[in-house]
């Protein structure tokens, strides 16, 4: 895996670009069968989902099979890396490529400290209230509401969230108060239009209990390498056409017309930055034997319960 830091023009660190090769199918994998989805880890079902016909939401059934790809994080590591999302990103990137249960597959990814979830909290809402409202409840079954929470507003834990008095949460609450809490790792899955917690259930619970903004690392696919050269050519072509348009205006109206660089330059910079940061749709693999196999798995994991409910 090749990794490189993504920076803004002002030198601000945005995230870590990951280019993965020779990994055709990940160990944490999304399968599709029509409107039905299956998330499995090492061939064990983690989450079954059914998208409603009218696209107003998703019914899901969560199993007990999810295990994080990250080993337990010691408190001294949290203190050593505190305040450095860049160093945390490099550490978690290594876990992602080395550990079982990672969703990484061939292509380009971004592991970023920036997430739209961090921008949506109203100033009058406490961190505890906001992040509690973001969590999708229900175990083993529940509902992702696309009608009320459209636009990836919600966070789906891959196992039940621990309570504020859980032993792990208590330990992390101390780190939260000290400012040394390790980041929560979220994976944006377009087929569910929400964020899955890959690692950090107890850390998010601790942040909510202490009403602080949780440090985040946000994982999603970006523009594939095969498309990158063409996208760069398009961006440069747009820039050149804008300069040519302004040159024609200057020829007609005189030198008082700007040359266009002031407006076209920042637009070019944004277009190029988007190539490293913009979210691309999550890959899903066709489920062998399609819906019949999905229903067989559903009957097994639900114990024959009538799910999803009509």
**Main sheet record:** 7 strands, mixed
H and E order: EEEEEEHHEHEEHEEHEHHEH
Number of helices: 8
By secondary-structure content and strand pairing, the structural class works out as: alpha+beta
Strands of the widest sheet, in order across it, are 1-2-7-12-10-11-9
Q: Report the principal-axis shape.
A: globular
Termini separation: 45 Å
* Weakly predicted, low-confidence segments: none
* Amount of helix: 25-40%
| Strand portion | 15-25%
The tally of strands reads 13
Q: For the CA atoms, what is the radius of gyration?
A: 22 Å
Mean pLDDT: 90
Give a written overview of the molecule.
- This protein has helices at 75-81, 85-98, 127-134, 167-178, 201-210, 225-253, 261-277, 290-301; strands spanning 2-7, 13-20, 28-33, 36-41, 44-51, 57-62, 107-112, 141-145, 155-157, 184-189, 194-199, 216-221, 285-286.
- It is of the alpha+beta class.
- A 7-stranded mixed β-sheet has the order 1-2-7-12-10-11-9.
- The mean pLDDT is 90.
Briefly, what is this?
The chain is α+β, with helices and mostly antiparallel strands. 35% of the residues lie in helices and 24% in strands.
Could you outline the blueprint of secondary structure elements for this entry?
Layout: E1 2-7, E2 13-20, E3 28-33, E4 36-41, E5 44-51, E6 57-62, H1 75-81, H2 85-98, E7 107-112, H3 127-134, E8 141-145, E9 155-157, H4 167-178, E10 184-189, E11 194-199, H5 201-210, E12 216-221, H6 225-253, H7 261-277, E13 285-286, H8 290-301
Helix pairs in contact: 3-5, 4-5, 6-7
């Amino acid at each position: 895996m090749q990794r490189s830091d993504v920076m803004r023009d002002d030198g601000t660190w945005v995230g870590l670009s990951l280019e993965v090769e020779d990994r055709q199918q990940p160990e944490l994998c999304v399968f599709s069968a029509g409107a039905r989805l299956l998330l499995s880890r090492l061939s064990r079902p983690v989450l079954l989902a059914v998208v409603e016909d009218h696209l107003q939401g998703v019914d899901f059934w969560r199993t007990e099979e999810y295990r994080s790809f990250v080993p337990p994080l010691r408190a001294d590591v949290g203190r050593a890396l505190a305040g450095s999302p860049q160093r945390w990103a490099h550490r978690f990137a290594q876990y992602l490529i080395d550990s079982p249960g990672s969703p990484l597959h061939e292509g380009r990814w971004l592991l970023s400290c920036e997430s739209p979830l961090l921008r949506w909290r109203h100033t009058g809402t406490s961190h505890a209230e906001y992040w509690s409202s973001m969590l999708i409840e229900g175990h083993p079954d529940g509902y992702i509401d696309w009608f009320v929470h459209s636009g990836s507003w919600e966070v789906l834990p891959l196992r039940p969230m621990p309570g504020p008095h859980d032993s792990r949460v208590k330990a992390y609450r101390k780190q939260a108060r000290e400012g040394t809490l390790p980041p929560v790792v979220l994976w944006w899955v377009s087929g569910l239009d929400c964020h899955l917690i890959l690692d950090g259930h107890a850390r998010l619970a601790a942040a909510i209990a202490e009403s602080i903004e949780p440090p985040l690392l946000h994982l999603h696919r970006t523009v594939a390498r095969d498309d990158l050269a063409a996208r760069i050519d398009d961006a440069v072509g747009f820039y050149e056409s804008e300069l040519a348009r302004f040159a024609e205006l200057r020829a007609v109206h005189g030198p008082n017309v700007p040359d266009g660089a002031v407006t076209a330059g920042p637009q070019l910079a944004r277009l190029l930055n988007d190539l490293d940061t913009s979210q691309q749709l999550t890959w899903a693999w066709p489920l062998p034997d399609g819906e019949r196999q999905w229903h067989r798995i559903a009957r097994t994991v639900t114990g024959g319960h009538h799910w999803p409910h009509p």
